[in-house]
């Protein structure tokens, strides 16, 4: 019965097709669903017909059932016809599979890292400071969400994502190759509207590619159970017109160049800008999933409010929370663990992020 429901609903539950390979994959899926639906109706129809026509009637208790050893015509039909159908399914399945596995040589390479329970994206767009030779590239990190039962039942989950989620931005009509790995467990990077999906495995580099064809915002999901916050490992990919994308990229690179030049100048630091950037990273790096800023106790990790300057009890002793301790805890989370809490997972914080996060924590007095 489940197969029948899936087949019957398959034509109306597929995501929109928003990439060059999507229509081919959707056609293969719809073909399989259609064949399954027809096969189900035929098999069940014949079964019901036989049950009614050949049922044993009153007075036939001792009637001997006809014993058939074989039926050559029927055996040829039920062997050849399914073989032909399987061949058609195989052809369309392989055609789309081969296209998905052949990475385009002219595709822009984007690095993606999956971790519990976020996606990190690194674009190949970077700027350098001529004086220090320091480099910064455009990077984005998704936010873990907490989908409620109401938002799922009322189909408002995408509205919630569009309101608060970080957008991974790409250009319509350009090819992108995702080079992907994981820092912890197996994840599965999936963009339903593009009809692409690939497992993301620790210690390995996997790849997929896509070429968006439709401007808009589309959901990213993790389709491999990866822990208790798996359902919140969502994201949004925003497809822009090429001109709008180039403008977005230029603005991002200009901000990074300004940060590099500020670091190299050695001049006075804009504390407000540091705190603002730290607050942005607090959300982007997923700190908010465990560290609240309200001072409330009972969370999965110590609150950031009033944390700076406080003496913490560790599993191995005591320590005063200062710049050095915060830096070490961000870059080497398991080095010093606060008593009563589990070791913090690696959240992908880089050395260049530390000063911003420290400034933000200091501001929460």
From TrEMBL:
Q: Where are its TM segments located?
A: 32-52, 73-94
Reaction(s) catalysed by this chain's protein? 4 Fe(II)-[cytochrome c] + O2 + 8 H(+)(in) = 4 Fe(III)-[cytochrome c] + 2 H2O + 4 H(+)(out)
Tell me the superkingdom of the source. Bacteria
Q: Which GO terms describe its molecular function?
A: copper ion binding; cytochrome-c oxidase activity; heme binding; oxidoreductase activity
Q: Name one Pfam family in it.
A: Cytochrom_C
Q: Name one GO cellular component term.
A: plasma membrane
Q: Does the keyword Cell membrane apply?
A: no
Cofactor requirement: Cu cation
Cytochrome oxidase subunit II copper A binding domain mapped to chain residues:
105-251
Name a single GO biological process.
Answer: ATP synthesis coupled electron transport
Q: Which residues form a coiled coil?
A: none
Q: Which family does it belong to?
A: Belongs to the cytochrome c oxidase subunit 2 family.
Give the protein's recorded name. Cytochrome c oxidase subunit 2
Q: Can you name the source organism? A: Turneriella parva (strain ATCC BAA-1111 / DSM 21527 / NCTC 11395 / H)
């Amino acid at each position: 019965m489940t197969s029948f429901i899936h087949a019957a609903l398959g034509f109306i539950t597929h995501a929109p097709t928003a990439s060059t390979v999507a229509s081919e994959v959707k056609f293969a899926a719809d073909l399989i669903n259609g064949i399954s639906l027809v096969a189900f109706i035929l098999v069940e129809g014949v079964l019901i017909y036989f049950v009614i026509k050949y049922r044993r009637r009153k007075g036939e208790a001792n009637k001997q059932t006809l014993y058939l050893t074989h039926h050559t015509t029927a055996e040829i039909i039920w062997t050849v016809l399914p073989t032909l159908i399987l061949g058609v399914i195989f052809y369309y399945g392989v055609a789309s599979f081969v296209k998905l596995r052949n990475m385009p040589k002219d595709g822009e390479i984007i690095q993606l890292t999956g971790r519990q329970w976020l996606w990190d994206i690194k674009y190949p767009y970077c700027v350098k400071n001529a004086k220090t030779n320091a480099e910064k590239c455009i990077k984005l990190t998704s936010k873990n969400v907490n989908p409620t039962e109401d938002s799922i039942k009322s189909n408002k989950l995408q509205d919630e994502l569009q309101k608060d989620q970080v957008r991974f931005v790409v250009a319509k009509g350009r090819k992108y190759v995702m080079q992907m790995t994981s820092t912890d467990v197996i994840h599965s990077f999936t963009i339903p509207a593009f009809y692409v999906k690939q497992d993301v495995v620790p210690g390995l580099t996997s790849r997929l590619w896509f070429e968006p064809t439709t401007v808009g915002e589309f959901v990213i999901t993790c389709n491999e159970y990866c822990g208790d916050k798996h359902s919140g490992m969502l994201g949004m990919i925003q497809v822009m017109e090429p001109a709008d994308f180039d403008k977005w990229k230029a603005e991002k690179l200009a901000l990074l160049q300004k940060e590099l030049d500020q670091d190299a100048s050695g001049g006075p630091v804009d504390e407000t800008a540091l705190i603002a950037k730290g607050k942005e990273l607090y959300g982007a790096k997923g700190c908010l999933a465990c560290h609240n800023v309200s001072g409330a106790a009972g969370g999965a990790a110590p609150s950031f409010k009033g944390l700076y300057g406080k003496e913490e009890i560790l599993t191995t002793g005591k320590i005063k929370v200062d710049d050095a301790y915060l830096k070490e805890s961000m870059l080497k989370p398991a080095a010093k663990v606060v008593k009563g809490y589990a070791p913090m997972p690696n959240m992908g914080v880089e050395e260049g992020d530390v000063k911003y996060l420290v400034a933000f924590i200091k501001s929460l007095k």
